[in-house]
Amino acid sequence: MSHHILLRLLRELKIPSRLVKTTAWYLLSLMLPADRHSQTFASKISGLASSLFSNLLRKHLHLSRQCLNRASRRRIKWLMKKRQMLSKNAPWTIALVIDATLHERHSKKCQNSQKFTHGKGWVHGHQWTNIGVWVAGEFIPVATIPFYTKDECRNRKIDYRTENKKVAQWLQTLDLKDLLGRHCSSEIVVLMDSGYDCSKIYETLKSRKLDFIVGAKNNRSISIDSKKWQPISQYFQDRRRREKIIRQKSGDGKKWQRYAVKQQIGYLKGLFPQVNFVSSRRSNTKMKCFICSNLSVSAGVAIACYRIRWSIEIFHREIKSHLGLQDTGAHSFDAVHSHVLWVFCSYILLRELIEPSSGIKRLQQKLECKLRVNEVKSLRQISTQFYSVEKIKAKCLSVIEEMESRYAA
Description:
The chain is of the alpha+beta class. It is 44% helix and 21% strand. Strands 1, 2, 3, 4, 5, 6, 7, 8, 9, 10, 11, 12 and 13 form a 13-stranded mixed sheet that branches. It is globular. The model has no long low-confidence stretch (mean pLDDT 84).
């Protein structure tokens, strides 16, 4: 297989010439279907020493971050020309989606590892707070926020911060003009789950004049007249308030789903401006509550826009299942961080090289077919040269010998 299919894109990422070949092969190893996307697999398909890929991850974290930033910004600015409303009657065309994922590690001796609670129990490994931009029906990841333990912060001589404080700082320092190009702040909505329901993030979004839709915690205190405070779940479970039935299309767009919703404008404890409270409930499911900063948005529009948050969950599933997010065996946390950024970069490049509408597994299969077509073309080119039969025989013989040696081993 040839790595030249990536060279055009890598030139635009401005990778140093001495690292172009190693970077191209590592990205290609992540983009091809495999049982395990490790440095050994990259070494097998490229013929290069695995130490080259180890050095790429361990010593060039800044390069992976720089390449991801350039790839994501280039893709976002191209999609910004085709942006449209997130939903019918919605005031937003761009969504910033924030969510965390856990990177499970089998070894407890790796750097910066810690036990994290999970829906199915405890997970030992790393935590990443991932951020993506949803525009023109496509999800584009940007640089992730790593979580450092207290011991790691002490070794790196940096201040320890919780995840919510890191997200608030990222939102405060975010350069939207550099990320999105020409836009209006009223076009953007920030989508987060209930894990980010905290006053620090709300204050940051208020200072940046950004709209948000956040899943509310069940014990979140709200008030209608700023005098009597009660949990949001208790307020919406009051049967005196009537439910309104709305219909929303399912994720595949083939079926309609019915939601029983309630809506009320009130106050958040710790946040003085009024906000829009929405509760939704499907049949045989628990009630979910949301907080929307835009008072003019209806309950149907708020629910339809909040469902876009599920795109980051699909992104997490695809990079873990098909791009080898958890396949790195590096001990150094900088190497693990670099591997994660290269996985994000390969996700963007796959959608640029093939087509963005398909799933990642399908894109990998199409890329593999395209590379095989290039091999056939090279054989056809050899067949037009002098001594073509001998050259093709020699090439086939080398493949057969390699297969026999692997079978014998």
